[in-house]
Write the structure tokens for this entry.
Amino acid sequence: ALSGMPLLQKLDAAREIMTIWDILAIPILSMLVLGTHEVGHLVAGMSQGMRFLMLIVGPFGWHASASGIRFEWNTHVEFMGGLAAAAPTNVGASLSRQLLVMTAGGPFTSLLLAVLAVVLASFTDARLTAYLMFVALVSFGIFLVTLIPARNGSFMSDGMQIIDLLRGGNAAIERAALMQIFAQTMDGVRPRDWDPSAIDQLSAIYSENATQNAGIALYLLSRAMDNDQQEDVARYRTQLENNIDQFPSAFKQSVYVELAICAWLAGDTDAVRRHLEAGKGGFVEESRRLLAQAALAKLEGRDEDCQRDRLLAVKALAKTSDAGQAKLTEDQLAMLK
């Protein structure tokens, strides 16, 4: 009975006409499916007033910066499967809803694409029907897999995040405090001017999620630097050094760069050099990396190299995605004149 279905008849006909060259369509169709899932996250988030930050699909990447959206090649294998990020423009009672809609947007879009592909396959020729059914199967598979509640190291599946947000409690409070600071720094509020109540809330948090604890320490470190609180800088520096393995590999380098800057402020040349070596690659604000390089050159007495990297860092400030931290960077670069 099934063999009489028009769709299956067209798939059977496709087997007769398809060649080895049709295999080349598989990676293209796969990226289309992955990209649709990630764009679904972004469209859902932006429908709630969130702001674009990042989109990665296979080797392609787009990042927000002070000068607009810029393209970068993605060389990190762990993110070839896709990554999307958006920042809330408002914080408060609506934040959980914003995050929930954005998180659910990916699986929903994958399901929608699977249904649409099956419908379109009913009206196309045999070869295109085969392509569309491949899209439908992969997209439906992504829909199912991403909804399975799972935690992979520091990453949570869409399903796990949805459950986390629906539960509320401490997890929702912690995320709200982090996102409140995140929204402020993206809007250009420098670390020392972040909302004191949100800072107090962050300082009091001890999450079961070790990655979240390390992320909190990174924010508090920036604020301590901007307030010239050397004891707090030393404390958060130690906390990050002890927990740096909790960060995903591509984001770990940005922590090493911050540790290099801390070491410069402490006059520890060997530590600056060691952390800069460990901080190669990854997702790092170029202005922060150049600041650390200039600081090392200053400590080593290489004044020409210091001024060269300092000037390059000043130029790189226009490309930074974190407008609040950029003001701290600008002040720290002035210390190297």
